[in-house]
Design brief:
alpha+beta, single chain, about 160 residues, five-stranded mixed beta sheet, 5 strands
């Protein structure tokens, strides 16, 4: 014959711990439950507003004029609307030396800042063959001649690609 199972012992813990483990009580008037700390709500992120074509034209003119003032060579502006998710326009230019390319990037960032852009990220401005400037809906690439030929962004994003398709 099997021995009888012992009666289950009550759960260990104080009455307060048992109340907390049981969860909130439906009737608030008869029981006092501790209030949980309320996390402050974070403000929703603002959706990025796409620039209108006239605004893009104005920014593109500022960019191209700035590069032209700094003696950039072979300045090309490409319209990527509908082709790329990361920008609507791309400007590509060539500089002959590291110092010229760095100066072009700095001057361009200053002019865009004056036009109201709060932050203009620049990648590769410390002595690189390729400097990228993110001007929101317009991305600017500054190359040394050899690097521009090697990467061939005009071939990748230009009209020749559209004609081949």
């Amino acid at each position: 014959m099997k021995p009888a199972l012992a009666e289950a012992s009550p759960a260990p813990g104080t009455p307060r711990k048992k109340t907390i483990a049981a969860g909130p009580v439906a009737d608030i008037d008869t029981a006092v439950a501790p209030e949980a700390p309320v996390k402050p709500k974070r403000a929703p992120r603002k959706a990025k507003v796409k620039a209108t074509p006239s605004e893009l034209d104005r920014l593109q003119k500022i960019i191209v004029d700035s590069l032209d003032d700094d003696k950039a060579e072979d300045i090309v502006a490409l319209d990527l609307s509908g082709k790329a998710m990361f920008c609507d326009r791309m400007v590509i230019a060539t500089g002959l030396a590291d110092r010229q390319i760095s100066a072009m990037a700095q001057h361009l960032a200053e002019k865009l800042h004056k036009e109201g852009m709060k932050r203009v990220p620049i990648e590769g401005a410390t002595g690189s063959d390729w400097v990228l400037i993110d001007a929101g809906d317009i991305v600017v690439h500054l190359f040394k001649p050899e690097s521009r030929t090697m990467y061939g962004l005009e071939r990748m994003w230009g009209k020749e690609l559209d004609e081949a398709v």
